[in-house]
Amino acid sequence: MEKPITIKDIAKKLGLSTSTVSRALSDSWEIKKETKELVIKTAAELNYHPNTQAKGLVTKKSYTIGIVVPELVTSFFPMIISGIQKILMHEGYQILITQSNESAETERANLILLEQHMVDGIIISTTSDSLVNSDVYKSLQDNGIPLVFFNRVPSNIDTTKIIIDDKKMAYSAVTHLIDEGYRKIFHFAGPEKLDITKERMNGYIEAMQDANLPISDSAIIHSGIFIRDGEQIMEKILSGNGEKPDAVFAFNDPVAIGAMKALKRHGLKIPDDVAFVGFSESDMATVVEPYLTSIEQPRAEIGEISANYMLDKIRTNRLLNKKIVLDAKLNIRESSHKNTQL
Hints:
GO terms for molecular function: DNA-binding transcription activator activity; sigma factor activity; transcription cis-regulatory region binding. The chain has helices at 7-14, 18-25, 33-45, 52-59, 76-90, 104-116, 134-142, 166-179, 195-210, 227-239, 253-265, 299-316; strands spanning 64-69, 94-99, 121-124, 147-150, 160-164, 185-189, 220-222, 247-250, 275-277, 294-296, 323-326, 329-331. It is of the alpha/beta class. It has three domains: 7-49, no CATH class; 60-163 and 299-326, Response regulator (Rossmann fold); 166-297 and 330-336, Rossmann fold (3-Layer(aba) Sandwich). The strands form three sheets. The protein has a six-stranded parallel β-sheet, with helices on both faces. A four-stranded parallel β-sheet has the order 7-6-8-9. Strands 10-12 form a two-stranded antiparallel ribbon. Helix 5 (76-90) crosses helix 12 (299-316). The longest helix is centred in the last third of the chain and has 18 residues, at 299-316. The protein is elongated. The termini are far apart.
């Protein structure tokens, strides 16, 4: 096994002192730009990799960022993690990924574990109950560990939050269904304790009210977040004697896809009998038939921006608390066009 390249090797090749090379690699203001560029170029040519453990002993940092997500079943969170990793790896940071499996208790354990591993910061999207671990979030911040929340964010914690305008995009989705001629639009809402559930539901309600369409008592149904949840809700509706929808705006794509599955089992056609719009633009949206209309969130950008704000917090040693609202878009497909069918 070849001996790893060290700062001494770079210094010897360039005829510089090890302290000069070290400061150049750390982007010190004391080193000239030309020298920095030469050192960085030589380091790349020699395939030099910094020893983060040794660096950590000097800087009192672990150069590790913890990530906590509620699930890794769908492609939504892995895509965001890829965006986070892209930025952090370039800056010499490692990531430690944990998933909570939609359990607040597991999330708590994950946060404590990351603190014990002395991570330099934590990037997190909460479980379905975004408030239950507020005491842990506050404790981590009090202990000097910066937090950045994305997608699912707690309303009672003052920190940086990366989100989209869920209400606006829900309004856009429902308005699209109305423009297509649908009138009995049901909303399969998300877990009641999530802020994004409330925002998306408010967008649905406002769109219906602006179009002077009634919202029956059975039109808003709180679901879970998985395919089986949407399937169970739609099966119950179709098997019962209550009001039936002619369109469904679902909390997310998996719930919409589960409901579509149940509908097709009953021999009904999409979108002629019931149209569907999801949310979050999962990879499954263009795998199911017909293709699912959905709100596309900028997943990679969410990850990259979350990572950059985390780095800013670490570098400045300040909270820098901001709410960043990113753009999203409605991708219209066959599941919500009346002139197409499965």
